[in-house]
Structure formats: structure tokens, C-alpha cells
Amino acid sequence: EIVMTQSPATLSVSPGERATLSCRASQSVSSNLAWYQQKPGQAPRLLIYAASTRATGIAARFSGSGSGTEFTLTISSLQSEDFAVYYCQQYNNWPETFGQGTKVEIK
Amino acid sequence: EVQLVESGGGLVQPGRSLRLSCAASGFTFDDYAMHWVRQAPGKGLEWVSGISWSSTNIGYADSVKGRFTISRDNAKNSLYLQMNSLGAEDTALYYCAKDISGAGTYYFDYWGLGTLVTVSS
User: Fold this and answer.
1) Does residue A86 register a pLDDT over 90?
2) Residue B23 to residue A83: CA distance in whole angstroms
């Protein structure tokens, strides 16, 4: 099983600032990585797939990068609606595995 | 509009069984693989199981292998999860999620709202 490790666990950011979230895979997943956003009481929402492609309707301030074992999700200028938990997911192999999540909170 | 509606959750005693269902609409169900993902209270996401469009490709997390069985009925646009020998560690909100492919080895573009399973005596 591929283990996905996200850091930091919590990120405190002021509105308008940049947020950088990391995700590391225990072995290469190529570019088979997705990012999801989850707000309290809601289902996860797909943000990024293939490591760097924004899903339909996702704002341009969200960007993804990386390949192999190291990945980054960047939110260029945090808006109030972006405070949430973010998960990375590898889909290179079954079982598909998620990171433990990064909570982005208001500083 | 794609809709995924889970049902079948509830309070169940340890060691007992439960069957979850997911009713799908708004897309051609038998073109896509489907998955179950769970989230324990206050915890992160855990992939549970996936099934390809034709049911020929099925996978399980190690934590549920041998106890849970995923299936689908394309005629009824429905996905199922039979859960046996339930333990406290299975307490979670169970989401149904649609794969972007038929094979089942990709990411999830739509999720339901989940059905809560609580295992307790």
C-alpha cells in the first residue's frame, strides 16, 4: 500500500496570503495524484487531478505541481471560502490512498 | 445533474451485518466505475472499495478485505456495499463516489452526502 503523507497538519494563513500544502508518496505515483477540498458537513470536492490539472469550475488561484513522490497544492491568495481541509489522493495503484489532510485555518 | 444518494446506514451491534446502497442518477451509470470511501468521526478519508463498470475489476482496502463485498446493479443504477463482521473501527460516514473512468483506477469527480454507520453495543 502506498502511504501518502501531508504537511503541515494545520496551516494558519491570513486572507489574501499564499498557502502551500505538501503531499509526499512512499513510492512513485507518477502524476496520478488528485487534491480534494472538504468543508465541515460537506462531501469532498475535486480540485486538481493529474497532479496539476484543475477540475471543472475550480478557480485559477488553485494550482498543483509535482510528480513521482513530491506534490504541492498552492492557493495563491486565500479567500474566505478556501478555509477547509485539503486531502491528496494517489490513484496510481489500488488500494487508492489518501493523505491525512491539511487543515487551512484563518490566522 | 449527477446525484449520488447513499442509504442503509444506522446503528448496528458489533459482529452484525449491514448493507449500504447508493442510487445514482444524472449520468450513464454503467459507463463508470464506482467507489466507497469512508470517514470516521473527526478523521480523514479512507478508500474502502472500488468496482469497475462491468464488475470485472474489484478492489478492497486491507482493513475490510474478507468482510466487505462491493457490487453493482447497472439495470438499477445502484451500487452496494455488504458489510459483515462489523467492528467499532468501521464506525464512519460512508460516501459513494463516481470514478471518472470505467476501469476504476482514477480519481472521483462526484460524491454523495454519505450515510452514517455506527457500530456499538
Assistant:
1) yes
2) 31
Which triple of cell numbers denotes residue B108? 472521483
Q: Which of B106, B112, B114 sits opposite A91 (nearest CB)?
A: B106
Strands A85-90, A102-106: parallel, antiparallel or unpaired by DSSP?
Answer: antiparallel
Q: How many residues does chain A have?
A: 107
Instruction: Quote the pLDDT of residue B103.
Output: 83
**CA-to-CA distance for B5 and B78, rounded, in angstroms?**
10
Report in angstroms the alpha-carbon separations of B118 from A83, B23, B90, B115, B121.
29, 21, 8, 10, 10
The average confidence (pLDDT) of chain B is 96
Question: Which of A1, A38, A49 shows the shortest C-beta gap to B107?
Answer: A49
Cell of A11: 496551516
Q: Do A95 and B105 touch (CB under 8 A)?
A: no
On chain B, the residues whose CB falls within 8 A of the CB of A55 are 109
Asked if B111 lies within 8 A of A95 by C-beta distance, the reply is no
Task: Convert the pLDDT of each residue in B23-66 to its tens digit.
Answer: 999 999 999 999 999 999 999 999 999 999 999 999 999 999 99
The contacts of residue B31 (CB under 8 Å, 6+ apart) are B53, B102
- Calpha distance B2→B110 (Å, rounded): 7
